[in-house]
Amino acid sequence: MSEDIKKTISELHIYEKKLLKELGDNPGITPQRIALNTDMDIKSVMSAAGSLASKDIIEMRKDVEKIYSLTKDGEKYAKQGLPERKILNALAVKKQIAMKDLADEAGIDKKETGIALGWLRQKNWAQIDKGVLNITDIGKEFADKASVDEEVLEYLKANADGVKLFADDLKEGFKKLTGRKNILNIKKETSHSFKLLPKGEAILKEGFTIKEQATQLTHQQLKEGEWKSLEYRPYDINAEAPVVFAGKKHPLRVIIDEIRDIFLDMGFLEDNGEYVESAFWNFDSLFQPQDHAAREMQDTFYLKNPLTCDLPDDDLVKLTAETHETGADTGSIGWQYKWSEDIARQSVLRTHTTGISTKHLFEHEPPIKMFSVGRVFRRETFDYKHLPEFHQVEGLVCGEGISYQNLLGILKEFYKKLGFEVRFRPAYFPYTYLSTESEIYLEEKGSWIELGGAGMFRPEVLKPLGINQPALAFGMGIERLAMIRYDVEDIRMLYKSDIKWLRELPVSRGVEL
Question: Which domains does the chain have, with CATH numbers?
Answer without folding.
Answer: 1-64+184-241 (1.10.10.10), 72-182 (1.10.10), 252-504 (3.30.930.10)
